[in-house]
Amino acid sequence: MNNFEFFNPTRIVFGKDTIKKIDKYIDKNNRVLITYGGGSIKRNGVYDQVIAALGDRKVFEFGGIEPNPHYETCMKCVDYIKENNIDFILAVGGGSVIDATKFISAAYYFEGYAWDIIASNKKIERAIPFGTVLTLPATGSEMNSGSVITLNETKVKKSFHSELCFPIFSILDPILTLTLPKKQISNGIADTFIHVIEQYLTYPVNNQISDRFAESILITLIEESKKIFSNPEDYDVRANLMWSASLGLNGLIGCGVPQDWATHMIGHELTVLHGLDHGITLAIVLPGVMKIMKDEKGDKILQMGERVFGIKDGEREERILKTIEETENFFISIGIPTRLSDHGLDENCIDPIVQRMIDRKWSLGENGTINPEKVRLILLDRL
């Protein structure tokens, strides 16, 4: 088991009718900014619940945050906060709204070009406190300190982390997910699944606790995904999927294990260059990563096959390939086509991505061995 440090100060307020508890965790004298996305919170009643919970506090709002939040939009929000002397931000939405809010929180006090927080890993000394009301379980952003932002000007999508960017609290009410369209549910399940995979499917370090935690989340996602579309009103299914998303990327299962994140890095390129949903890009890329990197990942693929999919019979190579097949079939079972061609892309999409990898001198994967040529092979496998 590798050495590790674990820190997570976010208060989780989980369950039915918990939005009203916002009142307990925001100072009554705070000037509060609500951040949100396209406006669905005003159509489904969540906004009204939040306003009621905030009571007599002075409330402002900033909407229009994109599904892959743009730096440019975030900076408009920073200007709005300065104009209105905001004390606290309340992100109401999914991972994109929360990610944007984290960056906004950090950028407010940053001196200079705020993109350097991400591009140059500039240290954040201070951030505006914020909380979240989660409406779309997927990214785990409601319980971690990371954020992914797109600089739209150059089509670059990158992440940053800061311990000052943990939410103070997060409201997780599974009832709020009842109005989500099927596509968003599927994308959220895929995103959670691959968050777990990126921290699990590397090489063994005899960390039984982290491995077993990871496997339990993967099994839960597989089991609950079979129920969610046939019985969408089932509260317990919604609750299990929501809690899985938070646990998938709150730092716990990453303790003491090597991590990969190549699938995410390649997937980000498909998003910024071709506009594919984040969850879809991950479901496309992961089987290719598993196949091209199966020699390095073989021991953990075998472990995953046995413990998650029940694959115990056959020679080593046969079980590895069967596990990869079952992984891809899982994404297909939740309604996500897993080939580039399924989404209107052909081999012409590959060279620009590979070139961007070369330009940035990226070496991806847990061993740093996924070079641009292997990225090409991964994407060729996904045509």
Descriptive key words:
2 domains; 11% strand; alpha/beta; Rossmann fold; Dehydroquinate synthase-like, alpha domain; single chain; two-stranded antiparallel sheet; 383 residues; 6-stranded parallel sheet; 8 strands
CATH 4th-level superfamily of the largest domain: Dehydroquinate synthase-like - alpha domain
The figure for the number of domains is 2
Please work out how many helical segments DSSP would assign: 15
Mean pLDDT: 96
Cα-based radius of gyration, to the nearest Å: 20 Å
Pattern of helices and strands: EHEHHEHEHHEEEEHHHHHHHHH
Name the helicity range: 40-55%
Instruction: Measure the end-to-end span.
Output: 37 Å
Strand sequence of the main sheet, in spatial order?
Answer: 1-8-5-4-2-3
Task: Name the structural class.
Answer: alpha/beta
State the name of the first-level CATH class of the largest domain: Mainly Alpha
Principal-axes shape call: globular
User: What oligomeric arrangement do these chains adopt?
Assistant: single chain
- Low-pLDDT sequence parts: none
Task: List the SSEs and their pairings.
Blueprint: E1 11-14, H1 22-25, E2 31-35, H2 40-43, H3 46-54, E3 58-62, H4 71-84, E4 88-93, H5 95-107, H6 116-119, E5 130-134, E6 146-151, E7 156-161, E8 169-172, H7 182-200, H8 208-228, H9 235-248, H10 262-274, H11 278-292, H12 294-309, H13 316-333, H14 350-360, H15 372-381
Parallel strand pairs: 1-8, 2-3, 2-4, 4-5, 5-8
Antiparallel strand pairs: 6-7
